[in-house]
Design a protein that fits this description.
By secondary structure, this protein is an all-alpha fold. α2 (39-54) packs antiparallel against α3, α2 (39-54) runs parallel beside α4 (84-134) and α3 (58-80) packs antiparallel against α4 (84-134). The protein has a domain at 36-105. It starts with 15 loop residues before the first helix and ends with a helix. The chain contains four helices and no strands. It is 80% helix and 0% strand.
């Protein structure tokens, strides 16, 4: 009796499970490599700064507005360096600083109006007292 041993043919290339594993690893690496740029946060910061500039915030809160601009510039730099988490934090900080500048400016403007009204009231009181004394 002749028994012939059949040897398996050598395969060329990776086996199916190995190829699937390789594909999964490459897909995960591609997804994990660079997070998405925080475009919406940067646009929100840019809008907040533009609104602050329209409201002439620099007259009342120039320090906060300058900080907002610096954070926005740093956020753009972080995006270029593919540091997306940092870019997001900087963009959010920029937006908050611009909104704070706007709020401070509105408060200062309201205080000016309030002071003017107090002066007007004082003037009216003096006029009333003068008129009562003239009777």
């Amino acid at each position: 009796m002749n028994i012939h041993c059949v040897q398996p043919r050598p395969r060329h290339g990776p086996s199916f499970p190995g190829a699937a594993l390789l594909l999964c690893v490459l897909t995960l690496a591609a997804c994990a490599s660079v997070p998405k740029a925080p475009t919406e946060a940067i646009q929100a910061a840019e809008l907040a700064i533009a609104n602050a500039e329209k409201a002439r915030v620099a007259d009342y809160a120039s320090t906060e507005l300058r900080g907002a601009r610096e954070d926005l510039t740093a956020a753009h730099t972080a995006v270029q360096q593919e540091k997306m988490d940092l870019a997001l934090r900087l963009a959010e900080s920029s937006q908050a600083a611009a909104q704070l500048a706007t709020a401070k400016a509105e408060s200062a403007k309201a205080q000016v109006v309030n002071d003017e009204m107090k002066k007007s009231i004082d003037t009216l009181k003096q006029e009333m007292q003068r008129n009562e004394g003239a009777r």
